[in-house]
Amino acid sequence: MSEIALLVLNPRFEYIATEAKKLTLIEARRQRCRQARYERYLAVVELHRQGHTQLAIAERIGIGPETIARWLHAPEFPERRIRSDRRPDQALVVQKQERGLQPSLIRPHYSAGRVAALVSMPPQTRSAAQTRHLDAFLRFCPKAHQLRRFVLQFRAMLRWRNANKLCTWIEAATASHFRFLAQFANTLRRDLKAVELSITTPWSNGPIEGQINRLWAIKRQMYGRAGFELLKARALPWDVPHAA
């Protein structure tokens, strides 16, 4: 159908076509994906109308049966939820460019993992940008002050190998309003003596765990193919005789 015919049928077509030309690469790709998904949805509905079962439709279209069932029970085409756009505001980018900052060096947001790392970092190890972001986060979430104190106290016990306040810390963490922190404290309480030794002694079972992981990796590689002799040959070092 030509654009003239579409314009007669839909006066808004000219506006829609103009807006479509202004799409960014991400928006255009998102639109293409939606169109392909919508066509599959129409095919699913049509096959269901013809009497095909959900399993048969899933095998024919190449989509999981759970998705087929969700589409058929939906009152209309289920749109995908688009994640919030975390790109920095354009005015803020222009403002920082005028101050001589590179756009690639401007961090518009921090992930949950980065925020957790900032909360646990000592003040002397943070950069100025990290300090500003952490201060903004603490103003946004004042309860994080208490969580940060717990984290730094536990970090200090590990850093200085001092377990004298471990029991006090566990009691306070268990009584806190942070469910995940209370669960961690209860886990430490189960084997308190081992936790104290891990804090106060310089030894670690890391090398042992590394060898165990290596052994399991070798066993997965040779699963069902050989017995103990081959496992022994691959796991133990070879006794290579020295050249004369």
Summary tags:
244 residues; mainly alpha; disordered N terminus
Number of strands: 0
Contiguous uncertain segments of 5+ residues: 1-18
Structural class: mainly alpha
Q: Give the DSSP E fraction (strand runs of 2 or more residues).
A: under 5%
Shape: extended
Instruction: Please report the distance between the alpha carbons of the first and last residues.
Output: 87 Å
Radius of gyration: 30 Å
Helix-strand string: HHHHHHHHHHHHHH
In DSSP terms (H or I, runs of 4 or more residues), the helix count works out at 14
The major β-sheet equals: none
Helical content band? 55-70%
Average pLDDT taken over every residue: 80
Give the structure's gist in a few sentences.
The protein is mainly α and 244 residues long.
Mind explaining what this structure looks like?
- By secondary structure, the protein is mainly α.
- Among the domains are: 3-73, no CATH class; 207-235, no CATH class.
- 66% of the residues lie in helices and 0% in strands.
- Helix 4 (54-61) crosses helix 5 (65-73) and helix 10 runs antiparallel to helix 11.
- It is extended and about 70 Å long.
